[in-house]
Amino acid sequence: MVTVDNITKTYQKGTVKAVSDVSFSVAEGELFGLIGPDGAGKSTLFRILTTLLLPDSGTATVNGYDVVADYRQIRNQVGYMPGRFSLYQDLTVAENIQFFATVFNTSIAENYHLIEDIYIQLEPFKKRRTGKLSGGMKQKLALCCALIHKPTVLFLDEPTTGVDPVSRKEFWEMLGRLKKQRITVVVSTPYMDEAALCDRIALIQHGSILAIDSPQGITSAYPGRLYAVKATDMPRVSHVLATQEPPFVGYIFGEYIHVDTPGRGSQDLTDELTGLLTSAGLSDVEVKPIAPTIEDCFIKMLTS
C-alpha cells in the first residue's frame, strides 16, 4: 500500500537534512508506527506521502500511485490528520464533518459505518463550535473528517500529542477497530508506550531509520542484559556506575535507573551491581534484571 525508497528531503538550501535516505514499506491493513522524538523527520515524511511536499530525491508510492506524478489520485484515496489541529474552529462539529464529506463528493450517511464509533461520542456536541471542544474531542472530530470519504490509507501525524491519557487510550482503540476494516494506518508518535500497539514500527532519529520490526522484534533484539537499580542517593548511583571500567550506561526511568551493561556479555550481574553500590556506601540498594522496553531499545541505539 505504501512504499518509500531512498527518500531524502532538505531545508534551507540543503543545509538542514530533515529526512535522509529513508526506505520502508507498509502492507495493506497494517498499523505501522513511525516512532521518534520531535524533529526526527516524521512530519516531513507524512507531508511527502500525502503529496504536500516534494522530496529532493528518492521515490514513494501510495496504493501504487507516485507521490509526485499521481498526486490527484492519492489525495482522493488517503485520509490525513496533520500534527496541528486544522479543522474550521468557527464551524460546528456537524458542519465540519458535512463540509469534508461534500468536498469528497460523498455524504455522512454513505460512510457512517466508518465513523459510527467515534461519532456516537461526538453527537452530544454536534452543535458546538469546534473551537470550544476539548483536545480529545478535537482529535476525534479530526479523525471523523479524515475518514468520511472512505480512504484506503490513513496518515495520522502525532494524533495523541497533548491529549489526556483516557482519550489517548480511546483513540488507539479506535485505530484497532479501523484496522479490522482493512484500512491501512500509518501513525507517528513520540510516545514509546504507543509503539507497542502497532503491528510494526520504524524507529527514526535525525531523519534516519534506526530499525524496522515488530515491537516484539525490536525488544527481543536488545543486546546484553538490562537492570533496574534504586538506592537512597540516586545521583551517586549514576556517578558510581559511570566511573567503572568499562562504564555502565545508566539513565533515569521513573523511580529507577535503568542500567545497560556494554562489554559484559549476557551473564547475570545482579550480585555484582549490588556489591558495587553497597561497597560505595550506598544503602537500600535494589537491583533487578528487567525486560527492555522499546524506549530502552531506542536509547541503546542512540548511545551505541
Question: Which of globular, elongated, flat, extended, rod-shaped describes the shape?
Answer: elongated
Q: Roughly what fraction of the amino acids lie in strands? A: 25-35%
Task: For the record, give the distance between the C-alpha atoms at the N and C termini, rounded to a whole number.
Answer: 33 Å
What is the rounded Rg?
23 Å
Q: Biggest sheet: strands side by side, in what order?
A: 6-7-8-3-9-10
Count of domain modules: 2
Mean pLDDT: 92
Q: Give the topology string: H per helix, E per strand.
A: EEEHEEHEHHHEHEHEEHEHEEHEH
Reported for the largest beta sheet, the result is: 6 strands, mixed
User: How many beta-strand runs?
Assistant: 14
Which fold name is given in CATH as the topology of the largest domain? Rossmann fold
Percent helix among the residues? 25-40%
Task: Please write the CATH class name of the largest domain.
Answer: Alpha Beta
**CATH H-level superfamily title of the largest domain:** P-loop containing nucleotide triphosphate hydrolases
Sequence stretches where pLDDT stays below 50 over 5 or more residues: none
